[in-house]
Amino acid sequence: MSDTETKTQTSVTLRPYELTDADRLAVLLNDPDVTEMTSSIPYPYARSDAEAFLSNVRNEEGREVSRAILLEGELVGGVGFKARASDDEELGYWVGKPYWGRGITSVAVAAFIVELDRLGIEGPIHAQTVASNIPSQRVLLKNGFRFVGDGECITPARSTAKKASKRFVLDR
Ligand SMILES: CC(C)(COP(=O)(O)OP(=O)(O)OC[C@H]1O[C@@H](n2cnc3c(N)ncnc32)[C@H](O)[C@@H]1OP(=O)(O)O)[C@@H](O)C(=O)NCCC(=O)NCCS
Question: Would you call 36 helix, strand, or coil by DSSP?
Fold first, then answer.
């Protein structure tokens, strides 16, 4: 691994969201290229959407955890876990477009799994991506997830039509 790669990896950290993150979220998430692959983030994304999200995450408890992804202390994305009855899409993540392709999400997901361990959240973690979302699938595979089958999902930011998906699980 080169010095540059080492530096990138060590500068990625996670922290709980703060109410003051609203402006930054509204800038990074008001981007259809970021939201169109997600199962719950709307587009357009207004400051009021960020404020509603931030007030909800402050009430999280039990098997729901959200964390901001920081690069050298600056918020660049988010990662979250929510146990769901459907056993799909428990893990979600995004990174602002200017920060894509630097390995940030791969490192952030690894750190997030350690955080779930630390919080005592045990058991398999399920994830689902749009079938064409190869970067997201790479993030999962690099973190030890295995492909479990094809499925269908909805990504409401762009349309309510069902899309082909790929389903993954991390056995733990
Ligand atoms: C998916 C997403 C989180 C990836 O974030 P990222 O920080 O750029 O991801 P990383 O840099 O850690 O890794 C991306 C991997 O995909 C690969 N990749 C990127 N574009 C690719 C492409 N067009 N074809 C194949 N692989 C590609 C990268 O090479 C890397 O794999 P590698 O390390 O084996 O080379 C980011 O693109 C994003 O926020 N997208 C919108 C939201 C989203 O899709 N969320 C996930 C919903 S399931």
Answer: coil
Ligand 1 probe mutation, 79, 94, 112, 138, most atoms within 8 A of CB? 138
* Helix ranges restricted to H, 30-167: 32-35, 47-57, 104-118, 134-142
Task: Please say if the pLDDT value at position 88 is more than 90.
Answer: no
pLDDT of residue 62: 78
Q: Is the CB of 104 under 6 A from ligand 1?
A: yes
Q: Is residue 100 predicted with pLDDT exceeding 70?
A: yes
> 144: left (phi > 0), else alpha (psi -120 to 50), else beta?
left
- Which domains occur in the chain, in start order? 3-170 (3.40.630.30)
Model confidence at 87, pLDDT cuts 50, 70, 90, reads: low
Regarding the beta carbon of 98 and ligand 1, being less than 6 Å apart is answered: no
Contact 60, 54 (CB under 8 A): no
pTM of the model: 0.93
